[in-house]
Design brief:
The chain is mainly α. 46% of the residues lie in helices and 8% in strands.
């Protein structure tokens, strides 16, 4: 029988370019799509379509080098970096069962948090269709304070990677003495959520 860590590792290995494009098209108001990604692994030599390029740009991919030259090698290298970033998110994410156990709530109650407007929890689907919850949304036994208010202030076009970077990266506007905190750590430490609300309004469209 596989351990939880082995299951998480296996889930993260299944990130194809098609799944990456699918994830970058999902946003805070449409985190669970009815259409499933085609998870067949694309051959590296196959060129990207214009639509795929647009989607991958949402994740921070750049398609020119320092001299402005376009290169398939550059494109695929940066796509690989985005895939690795998504793999890390998937590997660390919690399943519905794990969230219910952590919060000491039935799964139906957790689903109720997802269904709120704005949502009480952000979710996405793994490559095999399993519902996952980014780990930064939780403290040891509860959800992150003021999470729903933060989601309310995030623009509708923000995708998983942008949201994950925003919540987990240290921010120069969130200072505790001389130490910079991430929005996640700022909220978990009980600080004024309005500071994060202001920052959340500014991330729409950022990569």
């Amino acid at each position: 029988m596989q351990s939880n860590n082995e299951i998480h590792d296996q889930r993260a290995k299944e990130v194809s370019q098609d799944y990456l494009a699918y994830m970058l098209s999902q946003n805070i108001q449409n985190s669970i799509s009815n259409s499933q990604p085609n998870n067949e692994t694309r051959q590296k030599s196959q060129p990207l379509s214009p639509n795929e390029r647009d989607i991958l740009k949402a994740g921070g991919a750049r398609f020119t080098d320092a001299d402005g030259h376009t290169s398939d090698e550059i494109i695929h290298r940066q796509i690989q970096q985005l895939q690795n970033e998504v793999r890390d998110i998937i590997q660390q994410a919690l399943t519905l069962d794990e969230v219910a156990q952590r919060l000491s709530k039935p799964k139906e109650a957790v689903r109720g948090l997802i269904a709120k407007t704005p949502p009480g929890l952000y979710t996405f689907e793994s490559p095999n269709g399993e519902l996952l919850f980014p780990r930064w949304q939780f403290t040891e036994k509860a959800t992150l304070p003021h999470l729903q208010i933060i989601f309310q202030n995030i623009g509708p076009g923000v995708n998983l990677l942008t949201l994950n970077r925003f919540m987990t990266a240290e921010n120069g506007d969130l200072l505790l003495g001389n130490r910079r905190l991430s929005p996640r750590d700022w909220l978990a430490s009980g600080h004024d959520p309005s500071e994060v609300e202001i920052l959340a309004r500014d991330i729409s469209g950022q990569v």
